[in-house]
Design brief:
The structure is a single chain. The relative contact order is 0.09. It contains 24 helices and 33 strands. The chain is of the alpha/beta class and about 800 residues long. β24 and β25 form a beta hairpin. The two termini are about 50 Å apart. The longest helix is centred in the last third of the chain and has 27 residues, at about 710-735. The strands form 6 sheets. Strands 7-6-14-8-9-13-10-12-11-15-16 form an 11-stranded mixed beta sheet, with helices on both faces. Strands 30-31-25-24-23-32-33 form a 7-stranded mixed beta sheet, sandwiched between helices. Strands 17-20-19-18-21-22 form a 6-stranded mixed beta sheet, sandwiched between helices. α22 (about 710-735) runs parallel beside α23 (about 750-765).
Length: about 800
């Protein structure tokens, strides 16, 4: 018996080959009707035998394209209209947009085969793509996702490409960036020293790539326009080239990412697990932080790439241009963001030539506009679990599940403005949180301009509005100042509460019990929030916090002993200041083990620091454990000045590994060390929150330093003391509250060694440990956490009949 069904499919269903998939499935089941793109997703009308309809519906989600993400499929009975075939109708624009846009997708295997097949019409075409791969969000200007609303609108397809585009059985059916040598984007190569175009003819792209390779092999630096912006590339085995790039880019020490041709080349530099290999070769192709091979087994690499760090950031080619380039290069290349210091990645040709003209020797440009700038994503795998470090290309703008319960149906939508460093924003709609890509540090007008532009793009594409604006409490953050100037209802969320809330919200949203049910509720937890900087409720700088927290609120259970942040932000850039602040505050300044620090800084400078401390001149108190890591790094002679965020702590961690084995050094007296290197937990006599005091740890470290212990051993002992501290705090909190779930958040938990030790220790002591999943543990999660806190607090207000933002 014939019947009809009407379907509306929401999610990432445009630009991923979903309509051709629906067409093929409908033909397979002998169904008639149509499918079309609309602003609110994909609409389908089906007519056929009842059994065939059921068969189609059963396979719709099970066999959907890999790049698709179906968030809902609404099915209703419909009237038979007598269709005699199945067709793909033109797109339809509706007033309410509820569809999603796919992130950019790395070049697929089929396109790679065609790229290197001399018989294929797209042999060596630098912009080859299909519905399974290529640019998506970086070229889109509006929905529905059709060519006229992308930066491909300027390229009229040739007859051959037009035929593929309109053939439902072709892999390039409605592939909006579809093009070839005859009709598509082209490469252009500029030499900075001559200011002229080397070539722009489409058939000469091989010559242009070859010229780039020759420049790189000669020690040159080339700016290469990619999917989301420019990369700066040079020969990673050429010390002079890498040092020149550092000098020109003004990037003194921060490690560079590397691009390698394939997995085999990656394995000459680093240890690669199965999970890491799948990340390197998958459809996203992020930068993967890998542990270096022992020095004697590692392929040659310029020291200036990453110094003595234990990890290297490795990625494989993700675009046709990168594949063509790496096919001609027999060595790793530095492939770093095309920007100056922490400014946003550059995406436009004129801007690139103006700002990077003194950095790059040449520019490999193209004439396809980038409409949304995107950095490369960065991830790390530990024990086969993936941890996000920087969420950008390939992951954003895919929404993240958001906690939502049945009494939240009338909840106001939220804009959370996020932090200052590792900036993101978060816009919410029902069960979805749209967390932006990594937008850099909001410390300049250009960075904040990029933040505002991206916010406008998300609002326009996804039809997102907000009635409530949420921000950090720090009064000097640009995002906070902007939020305080808005007319909507406002809320402010403490930084470390947002860290823990982000972990809780991710876990709670992932446990949703069906479309109609509430998210799986997670109540209070023990929250360990360890990072560098966060404005506290008492207007001091927090960062070493043990909280008893839920989404709705928190109590400060314990914190690191406060010391002056000598000179304010200057202390972050000069870890020696923090070292002296700790020594002076804890009564350890006269210890013989401090001699090296005194000699390095100089007595005159230390006298000046003493005056600043005594007068409390621009020296707020801080409980930041990130600053304690800085202090220890300076004390044992590893890092006295920090040229990028977290440098002192990163180098301190790297120091505990033996480069000859790639493993942590071995403590000859671990039991004795554990007894001496132990934080002292003071219960404050039952008055107020507890304080954990690092005095015993620093005293033991100074003793060992004076006795001649090497920095690797001292770093190991300090790290182990922090591991034990986390267990100690968790146990104390459990004894008082009965809670046995611990949530870990904050930039300190980007530390590979800490995580590998903390997780098994807490689990062995009976704790359930919660960690971030789709977001970084660092400040990249803050906007999401802010939104989650605001949503929960609004829900509680609603229980009292108070509607914020309505």
């Amino acid at each position: 018996m014939r019947a009809a069904r009407s379907l509306q499919v929401s999610g990432i269903v445009q630009g991923v080959g979903f309509r051709p998939f629906v067409y093929r499935q409908a033909v397979r089941w002998s169904l008639c009707g149509w499918v079309l793109n609309a602003s609110d997703g994909v609409h389908i009308h089906l007519e056929g035998e009842e059994a065939a309809l059921e068969g189609f519906l059963g396979e719709l989600t099970d066999r959907a394209p890999l790049a698709a993400m179906l968030t809902s499929v609404e099915v209703e009975e419909a009237s038979l209209e007598g269709f005699e075939e199945f067709t793909i109708r033109p797109s339809q624009e509706l007033s309410q947009a509820d569809t999603l846009v796919s992130p950019d997708i790395a070049t697929c295997a089929l396109c790679r085969e065609e790229l290197f097949d001399p018989k294929n019409q797209r042999y060596h075409y630098p912009f080859i793509n299909c519905t399974n791969c290529g640019p998506r969000f970086t070229i889109i200007d509006g929905l529905p996702y059709d060519r006229p609303q992308t930066s491909m609108a300027d390229f009229e397809m040739c007859t051959a490409c037009e035929g593929e585009y309109h053939n439902p059985l072709d892999r390039r059916f409605h592939a909006q960036p579809n093009a070839c040598f005859d009709c598509g984007p082209t490469l252009q190569l500029w030499r900075s020293d001559t200011d002229y175009v080397i070539g722009f003819d489409q058939p000469s792209s091989d010559d242009l790539i070859a010229e780039v390779v020759a420049l790189l092999e000669a020690g040159g630096i080339v700016a290469i326009k990619g999917l989301g912006g420019y990369h700066l590339a040079c020969d990673a085995t050429n010390e002079e080239a890498v040092a020149t790039l550092r000098r020109r880019k003004r990037r003194v020490a921060k490690p560079f990412a590397l691009m390698v041709r394939d997995l085999s080349m990656a394995m000459t530099l680093c240890q690669v697990s199965y999970r890491e290999a799948s990340l390197l070769t998958g459809s996203v192709r992020p930068i993967v932080l890998l542990e270096r091979k022992p020095a004697s087994q590692q392929a040659p690499l310029a020291f200036s790439v990453a110094g003595n760090l234990h990890e290297l950031g490795i990625m494989l080619p993700a675009t046709p241009v990168q594949h063509l380039l790496m096919a001609l290069v027999d060595r790793p290349l530095v492939m770093t963001s095309g920007n100056i210091r922490e400014e946003p990645i550059i995406s436009a040709e004129q801007e690139a030539h103006e700002l990077l003209g003194s950095v790059a020797d040449a520019f490999l440009d193209n004439n396809r506009a980038i409409l949304s700038r995107y950095d490369d994503s960065v991830v790390r795998a530990i024990s086969e679990r993936v941890f996000m470090v920087r969420r950008a290309r390939g992951y954003a703008p895919r929404p993240i599940p958001f906690p939502f319960s049945s009494h939240d149906k009338d909840r106001a939508d939220i804009l959370a403005t996020g932090p200052e460093q590792k900036a993101t924003f978060c816009l919410t709609r029902g069960r979805q949180a749209f967390v932006s890509q990594h937008l850099g540090d909001l410390e300049s007008a250009s960075a904040f301009s990029a933040w505002l532009k991206t916010l406008g793009l998300y609002q326009r594409l996804f039809d997102l509005t907000y009635q409530v604006v949420v921000s950090d409490m720090h009064p000097e953050y640009l995002s906070t100042k902007w939020a305080r100037a808005q007319q909507e209802a406002r809320m402010e969320v403490q930084h470390h509460h947002a860290h823990i809330a982000a972990v809780l919200a991710e876990q709670q949203a992932l446990g949703a019990a069906g479309d109609a049910g509430d998210s799986a509720l997670i109540g209070r937890v023990i929250g360990i929030a360890f990072d560098g900087t966060g404005f506290g409720e008492d207007e001091t700088i927090w960062g070493g916090e043990a909280l008893i927290a839920s989404l709705a609120g928190f109590e400060r259970f314990a914190h690191l002993r406060c010391v002056p942040l000598v000179g304010g932000p200057a202390a972050i850039k000069h870890p020696a200041r923090m070292a002296w602040s700790y020594l002076r505050s804890l009564g350890l300044a006269a210890h013989e083990g401090a001699g090296a620090l005194v000699a390095r800084v100089g007595e005159d400078r230390l006298l000046l620091l003493d005056q600043i401390i005594a007068g409390r001149i621009n020296s707020p108190l801080t409980s930041s454990i990130g600053r304690l890591f800085d202090a220890v790094s300076a004390l044992i002679g590893i890092c006295y000045e920090s040229n990028y965020e977290g440098q002192a702590a990163v180098e301190l961690e790297a120091a505990l590994y033996d480069p000859s084995t790639g493993e942590p050094v071995v403590d000859p007296s671990p039991v004795e060390s554990a007894q001496r290197y132990r934080f002292e937990l003071d219960d404050a006599g039952g008055q107020g929150d507890r304080v954990f005091d690092p005095t015993p740890v620093l005293a033991a470290l100074l003793d060992d330093l004076f006795a001649g212990a090497n920095p690797a051993l001292l770093s190991l002992r300090f790290h182990n003391a922090v591991v034990e501290l986390i267990a100690q705090l968790s146990d104390a909190a459990r004894s008082q509250t009965g809670l046995s779930t611990v949530a870990l958040g904050g930039g300190v938990f980007m530390n590979r060694y800490l995580l590998t030790k903390v997780l098994p220790l807490l689990r062995s002591e009976g704790f359930t440990v919660l960690l971030s999943r789709d977001l970084p543990a660092n400040d990249g999660c803050i906007s999401y956490g802010q939104a989650a806190v605001a949503a929960e607090q609004m829900a509680e207000l609603a229980d009292f009949g108070i509607m914020l933002g309505s």
